[in-house]
Amino acid sequence: MRLPLKTEYACQVLAQLASTYAAGDVRQVEELATAEGLSPNYLVQILTTLRQAGLVISRRGKNGGYLLARHPGNITLAEIATAMEGGSLIESSPGNGGKSAEMVRAAWVQVNEAMMERCSGITLNDLIPPYVPQDGADWVIF
Predict the structure, then answer these.
(1) pTM of the predicted structure, to 2 decimals
(2) Separation CA 33–CA 8 (nearest Å)
(3) Which of 9, 47, 83, 119 has the fewest CB atoms within 10 Å distance of its CB?
């Protein structure tokens, strides 16, 4: 099993936005892409999905960019997975009709439910990276 990269990158960019949530900073795509080592074009696609899911707000204009739609303590990994993957981290095929196919599929459904339940208990607050201001001062925003 592998976490889809798009979902992993969504978590990373949301953690970046969470790091400056308290300051109300709007973050630009280029800044976010640089911080996480992502392609700006690919990041725009991810941010568009997150905006459509109501997890981020976009602002247009010269000083435009993105910010979280609500407090990072109120955004869970389960919500992010639902926004990016439709609510299932494990995709299980209907099987080939074999005698044990339905039982195997049911087991994977249970595993996915347990993972999503655990993801409901992890918020962006748990993922916030240390934020070091551009001027090099040694303080952190939480």
Answers:
(1) 0.82
(2) 14
(3) 119
